[in-house]
Known about the structure:
BirA Bifunctional Protein, domain 2; 11 helices
Amino acid sequence: MRPPEFPRTLTAELAGVEPGTAVTLMGHVHRRRELAAVTFLVIRDRSGLAQVVLRPDELPIEGLPPEETAVQVTGMATANRQAPGGIEVTAATVTPLTEPARTPPAELWRPSLSAGLPTLLDHAPVLWRHPAQRAKWELAAASLRGFRDTLDSLGFTEVQSPKMVESATESGANVFGVDYFGRPAYLAQSPQFFKQQLVGIFERVYEVGPVFRAEPHDTVRHLAEYVSLDVELGFIRDHHDVLEVLRDVLAGMVEQIENHAGAAVERLGVQLPVIPKELPVIHFRDALAKVGAPSDEPDLAPEHERALGVWAKETYDSDVLAVEGYPMRKRPFYTHPQPDDSRWSNSFDLIFRGLELVTGGQRLHRHADYVAAIEAQGESPSAYASYLQAFAHGMPPHGGFALGLERWVARLVEAANIREVTLFPRDLHRLAP
Length: 433
Ligand code: AMO
């Protein structure tokens, strides 16, 4: 039995309430429908909707509170086959818990929200109340649960690392500067350096947290702040061991969406992805050839990723494809080269339905290799002194990956723009709400 949540019945629990029992609902006025003889009030709470029927003499003297007002309704559970769950509330007293709500910028009681993206974003605190909007974040929440459950079961420790840092982690570009007690500092672009150092302590770590990228372009797949799901593990043979963990993580995320967000899947018509037992992998060199790109391209363009997504679906019946071996010259200095040909790397990207969702790979782990790699890019190892301590004191071969949560949900619901699935997006133009 669930412990009582003050004397309150959730709308979803009404179906199990014996007719004739007194109940108290708390929620928002979803819709009012005033007919000649009776008034219907639909109440929305976190679990769903319930119908309240009011006779003219039961209406509050000050009138029914408008849509979206938070209210308490006390009345009697009454059987009615037409009501949601077969039970409605009658003989009710409606008590507003706030002043009457202002009219929302779009009608939240309609099955689908007719608001364009700018309206959605400007009025996020109100419009996320719509059940179809909420459902998008329910997918994200269930995915986070799957991410954590899978890694907990594989012996990982959840960590949290600082978001104010002394140097850029991914590259000098795209960093937000911060005035840190008069010294220059940055918002962390990723937990990369910390998660590696923490492998020396816990062997296997993961982190869920915000990361910051001062993206100068307005694109449909970039945010200035996003949720990064980071993983790092020690004592690997190479990046293929990392890909195995990634496969299990993706399968676990899908499983927990099925277990905990089934209603959201149905409401949004989500086709859950197929994650094969083994991730299909293609070498970067072969991927370029497959999409007809010149062999000296250093990266895959968005249209190449889309073409590879289609190819993976046709060839492997897979919604995901790992591309390994990206050229060393385009990867960060901590990347481990491919042992038999150092032009290529032991790193990968994972493409999900035609969009880059994950970057990862094997890292350097010898101190001397770091010194050489940092010097090769014209920097002084002393600038990385605190990070390099871990390597000077013995680190295992290790690797990991990072997955962008908003990109994952965007592809799940086939959103044209990543902002559609972000609660409060931050970008070039938006710092509120
Ligand atoms: P990378 O920079 O490729 O790798 O980021 C990893 C994943 O994060 C997502 N992502 C973004 N999502 C929204 N807005 C953005 N601006 C944005 N930038 C990236 C993508 C991407 O695949 N340290 C490495 C990871 C590692 O090697 O472990 C890193 O941060 O889904």
